[in-house]
Amino acid sequence: MSDLLMLMAQLTAPEPLNGPNPDVDIAPMAKAAVDAVSQLEQAVPQPAIQGDMALTPEFSREVAARQRQKLLRLQQTARRPEPTAFATTPRAVEVARRQPVAVTGPKPVSGPQLFEQRWAALQSGSLYTRVSPDSFHGKWSNATYQPTYAEWKGLLKQEASAIAAGQGNNRLTVVIGDSLSMWLPPEMLPRDRFWLNQGISGDTTGGILQRLSVFANTNPDTIHLMAGVNDLKNGASDQEILTNLHQIMARLRQQHPTARVVVHSILPTRWENIPSKRVRSLNTRIAQLTDYHQLDYLDLQPSFSNDTGNLRQDLTTDGLHLNRLGYQVWQLALLQV
Question: Which intervals hold domain SGNH hydrolase-type esterase (predicted)?
Fold first, then answer.
């Protein structure tokens, strides 16, 4: 798989600003990639996944066949596909400052409180994204029990089932990721659609990959994906992150063929063990991978980075997580796409 990813990165590298280099012939690279994918079809190379998310040989061969057809087209035309990309700007911070989102009353500030509020909303026949931020205060204000990862997955599954049963003709946007996604304030989201938040604090690309089936029966028109910062924090290699993201993108496209999938860049941090140079390099490869899968890419780095490439201090609580202004900047980016 690592060789295939390397070939994919070569094939999907962005063109120089002055256009394609006529002296570079990518046809041999395309042929090599086609040969590599032909071998993949025989070997069924997808890494094994435990549990009910295990990839079947049928799915693996189907993905490989689609990859082979795309690479054959590249070989015939010797041209790379143009990516669909959106980029934020530093001005987004000033725009967010001028457009504050008011919140009335208390709202959950801890994982236990948010968990209990979301369960209370479900039990009342609604989703927490459709109620006031201070709703069900009596049921969550004193919550201290820390839900397990399995319990969070159970909650997300229940919310997804509720959406699948009651969406009707309403639009649906899914947000999937880690704590950055989980704490996206629902009061900042447009009310013209349903929002299904599938973020879990501390989750990694590997964890996300194994729980995509939770919302498989929903019918979103847009899916936002941001993942990878916890992998970096936990010491994962770039190759491991890219391999997982490759499978996530393939699965989302197979699971929701009509949805628009928007892959967000990994946000910079202020943590020394997650250098900004590595984040930028990894985001470049994620953008190439997104282009390969013909998905949309949202580059958040211009809005969230300072002059040294680190996360802006005025947008974070601890150098990794976002404060309210940071979420307002992200909200503007979500509305952009």
Answer: 182-329
60 close to 44: Cβ distance less than 8 angstroms:
yes
Task: Collapse the DSSP code of 242 into the 3-class scheme (helix H, G, I; strand E, B; otherwise coil) and give the result.
Answer: helix
- The pair of structure tokens assigned to 109 is 């500030």
If one counts every other C-beta atom within 10 angstroms of the C-beta of residue 42, the result is: 9
Sign of CA dihedral 217, 220, 222, 226: negative
Cα–Cα distances in Å, from 139 out to 56, 223, 243?
Answer: 43, 31, 41
Tokens 């002059």, located at residue: 307
CATH superfamily of this structure's domain 84-336: SGNH hydrolase (3.40.50.1110)
Within 10 Å of residue 135's Cβ, how many Cβ atoms? 17
Taken in order 240, 242, 244, 246, is the CA torsion positive or negative? Answer: negative
**CA distances, 293 to each of 66, 82, 83, 246, 333 (Å):** 10, 12, 10, 8, 21
Rg (CA), the chain: 21
Q: Residue 291 burial by CB count (10 A; 0-12/13-18/19+): exposed, middle or buried? A: buried
Note the pTM of the prediction, 2 decimals: 0.73
pLDDT tens for each residue of the chain, 337 residues long? 444 444 344 434 333 333 333 333 333 433 444 344 344 334 333 333 233 222 233 334 454 455 545 444 444 443 333 435 555 566 655 665 555 556 668 999 999 999 999 999 999 999 999 999 999 999 999 999 999 999 999 999 999 999 999 999 999 999 999 999 999 999 888 889 999 999 999 999 999 999 999 999 999 999 999 999 999 999 999 999 999 999 999 999 999 999 999 999 999 999 999 999 999 999 999 999 999 999 999 999 999 999 999 999 999 999 999 999 999 999 988 887 7
* Contacts of 142-150 spanning 24+ positions with Cβ under 8 A: 143/110, 143/112, 143/113, 143/115, 143/116, 144/112, 145/112, 146/111, 146/112, 147/111, 147/112, 147/115, 149/200, 149/202, 149/203, 149/207
Helix, strand, coil abundance in the chain, percent, nearest 5: 50, 10, 40
Give domain limits for the chain: 2-77, 84-336
